[in-house]
UniProtKB/TrEMBL annotation:
Species in which this protein is naturally found: Variovorax defluvii
Protein name: ABC transporter substrate-binding protein
Domain SsuA/THI5-like, first and last residues per copy: 49-263
Localization annotation: Periplasm
Keywords: Signal
InterPro entries, per the entry: SsuA/THI5, TAT_signal
Pfam families per record: NMT1
The family this protein is said to belong to: Belongs to the bacterial solute-binding protein SsuA/TauA family.
Length: 348
């Protein structure tokens, strides 16, 4: 009786609020959502890495699924993750590899919809501070800017360093965010190199501020760096949250896949009209050039590729001794169940 009463009240409220009633199936779905009001933590929302999240928010796709979503933006993925671990946010929009790192610490988190099929992270050395750069070994003792220590930008830098025989302790990592602060840190000489996402990296590259030494902004570049497909941005949450709130997770996956579907055919002008003006960092042309560079790295249907988790695990285990590959159960780090349903619904 309680559920019937709630449904009746909700339907009446919706009917009063709009002269055009929502379809019955939408109202029924909204009535079933376990947590209609929730918070998502993200590390650097202005980056193209999280463009699907921004698109789904700006175009009202979360609301269309009956969700009232509050998005909290942090300096980097590691900070966003801390918010979820600490309980101040329900879901994290962050890098898939965090689910592996967390499991190594006996915390089970699960990705349930993919936003990016390549990390979109490039590493560049300052042409001002390191004009004579000859190889990765030259970074020993240098300051490297990352979105935030422990973030995916930090992870990619660690991987590149390890392949050149360097340890993370051989350099100093400095959090610079993924927006104007990152540009300032590099151009003012506060850091010697930077591992970051677009549009920051394309802006630095086109102005001649950096020399790119590693690039995962394309599928080809990702294959060269990681040796396989590398799942990137996703929505992930504690496994317990996913189990207790399946309809909520389905609604979130629906909204993201809807956004991915829109992005498949969106033109540069559509992007400019949709994202907040501040995301352009004062240069529309360079912002669009950045989008062209990373477009293929955006997921198309929200599904984690079969080989992706293994690629991520191999990469992390290669430089992080706390992650033992034989002890990680990859099947617990992600599920494609929600994304498959969303893909079918939106024909993504």
């Amino acid at each position: 009786m309680l559920n019937r009463r709630r449904f009746t009240v909700a339907a009446a409220t919706l009917g009063a609020a709009s002269s055009i009633a929502l379809p019955l199936w939408v109202r029924a779905q909204q009535a079933r959502i376990e947590k209609p009001k929730l918070s998502i933590a993200v590390g650097g929302k202005a980056a193209f890495y999280y463009l699907p999240l921004t698109i789904s928010e700006q175009l009202g796709y979360f609301k269309a699924e009956g969700l009232d979503v509050e998005i909290s933006d942090f300096a980097g993925g590691a900070r966003a993750l801390q918010a979820v671990v600490g309980g101040s946010a329900d879901v994290c929009s962050g890098a898939y590899e965090h689910t592996i790192n967390l499991q190594a610490k006996n915390q089970v988190f699960q990705s349930f919809v993919l936003q990016g099929r390549a990390p979109q992270i490039a590493i560049g050395v300052s042409t001002k501070n390191m004009p004579g750069y000859a190889g990765v070994a030259d970074l020993r003792g240098k300051k490297i800017g990352v979105s935030a220590p422990g973030s995916s930008t930090n992870m990619v830098a660690n991987l590149v360093l390890s392949r050149a025989g360097l340890k993370a302790s051989d350099v100093s990592f400095i959090g610079v965010g993924v927006a104007a602060g990152a540009l300032t840190a590099l151009r003012s000489g506060q850091i010697d190199a930077i591992s970051n996402t677009d549009p920051v990296m394309t802006m630095l590259e086109q102005k001649g501020d950096v020399k790119i030494i590693s690039d995962t902004r394309t599928l080809k570049g990702t294959q060269e760096v990681f040796g396989g497909p590398m799942p990137a941005a996703c929505l992930y949450a504690p496994a317990e949250f996913v189990q207790k709130n399946p309809n909520t997770c389905q609604a979130l996956a629906n909204a993201i896949v809807h956004g991915l579907k829109w992005l498949q055919t969106a033109g540069p002008g559509d992007i400019i009209k949709t994202v907040p003006e501040t995301y352009l960092l004062g240069d529309r042309a360079l912002y669009l050039a950045s989008f062209d560079k990373v477009r293929e790295a955006i997921a198309t249907d929200g599904i984690v590729p079969a080989e992706g988790p293994r690629t991520a695990l191999a990469a992390i285990a290669s430089f992080d001794p706390t992650v033992k590959a034989d002890r990680i159960e990859l099947g617990k780090t992600y599920t494609n169940e929600f994304a498959r349903r969303a893909k079918e619904r939106f024909k993504a």
